[in-house]
Structures are given as C-alpha cells and as structure tokens.
Amino acid sequence: MSRGSHDNPCSDSDFVSLGNKAGGKTKSNCARIVTVTSLYIMLLSSFVGQSFAADAAWGEIKDKHFVIYYESQNDKAVAANLLRRAEDYYRKIGDDIGYSRTNKMWTWDDRVQIFLFATQATFLAKTGQPVWSTGYADRDSRLFKSKTIMTFKQEENFSDGLLPHEISHLILHDFIPNGRIPVWFDEGVAQMQEMDKRAMARSIMRKLTSGDQYIPFEQFMRWDIRTERDPRKAQVFYVQSLSVVDYLITKYGVDAFGRLCRHLRDNKDFATALAGAYAGIFKGPQELEEKWILSIKSLKE
Question: pTM surpassing 0.70?
C-alpha cells in the first residue's frame, strides 16, 4: 500500500502492458481480464474510521467476522452478496497462507466494518479522496486496528479483486503485528487472492528474467515502494512480489509458508525466518533468488 495513493498501482491492464513491454504479447487467456475497476475501495486510518458512522437510514447486515453498512436500501442484496464473499475469503485466505484462525478473531465487536456507499459522489464527499482513487491506506498500525473498509457500488470486479486483496492485508497484519512484514511480502500475499493474476505474473516474469529486467533481491528485499515515483518500476515490483510469493506457496506448500509467517510473527527478520521455515532449502534470500529465477525460466510459454 502506498501512503497517499491508491493501493497497488499494477492493475490487470498494467500487467498486460508490462508483459508486452517485456517482449512479445502476453497469452490471450492472460489478456482476457476485466480492466475496469468496478468498485472503489478505501481502507482508512482509525481516525477516519472512528469519525464516520452510518446513520439510522443506513441498512446493516452482519455475519461472524464482518458487518456491512449500506447506504441505499436498494443495495441490500448487493450487501448480502458482499458479506458472503467476505466470509468465504476470510476462510480461504487463512488456509492459503498456512495458518488457522481462532474462532474469537474478528468476532462480535471486533468484526471488520465494510461501508457500502450508494454512489461514487457520496463516497468522495465523505472520504475526501480524489476522483481517480481506487484505494487509500496509511501504512500505520492504527489502520489495521480499525479494520474499516469503505467502498461504493459501481459494477463488478470488486468481490474478486480488491476485496480479497484488502482482507489479505488485514489478516496478515493482524497475525504479524510487529512490523516485520517486508513490503514486497505484504503486497505479494495480498495479490495472491486476486483472480487470474498468478498466471499473468508467471508469464510476465518469465520474460523479464530472461532479459535480466527483474529487480535484484538485494534491492527488492529492502525496497519501500511507497517512495517510488516511476510507475513502471512500481509495476515490476508488484508483479515480482506476487511471483515470489506464488513460487514459495506453489513449490513448497502452505505448511512451510505458514512457518515463515509464524517466524516473522515471532519477531525474526526475513532472512532468519526464511532459513528457519525452509531448512535445507534456502540459507537466505540469495538462494531464494537463484531458485526462483531457475523456476521462472523453466516455465513454458
């Protein structure tokens, strides 16, 4: 997430564009991605989350881990579908990143709040975001304590893209609250839940690594992408983040990935956590880089 900008500048259309620049066209199945962001999302700091409250005219629907407030009574069915998808992603994301969550997490008064505005106009008026905003978050521990998501209804793609992306951020920061999460790791995990991006990232990274256009791990591991002004560098960062996380989970499974998350939770730096979780496989980030590159270059077109 970027301070003062939208979350993840590398959209599906950017993935396709980046793949074309890396050499040749991406596969047709990768290009058939919905490129219109259909619901705008906003993760707010605790200050904004606490200062805004749905009034009596808003509808409310809740389940075990989420409560959704919807501005228009006409959107009750939309809110119900959003709630069902959120609960499904809550369970799936926990399984995918290798740790189970206790029944007491995000329940009762600790539920995640999702505010569904009827229109973009009311969303912008209440949040003060620019018209192009597709998400905003201040990378601050207070944000993740507030567990507030704000969005407005438009068309489609939110449920399969931005919603699981933001829930992933919340779960990861809830599980690892000590600030030990590298930026690339955070964004890679979040993107794992977005439909179709894995295949696109594999295709793009195969082209980038073959031309030595990827980001060397010495820089990649410590890069705070929030300070980067070059959009193409940011795009490569996001694609590579997804690719590395995808490689770790696909190649070595969720159990090992869960151990990595637990080592980070236990306040170990990434290099130590990696060596502990993947004993006998990686001694550190350099070996991860070497084996990841070999794996990417072995992919078939």
Answer: yes
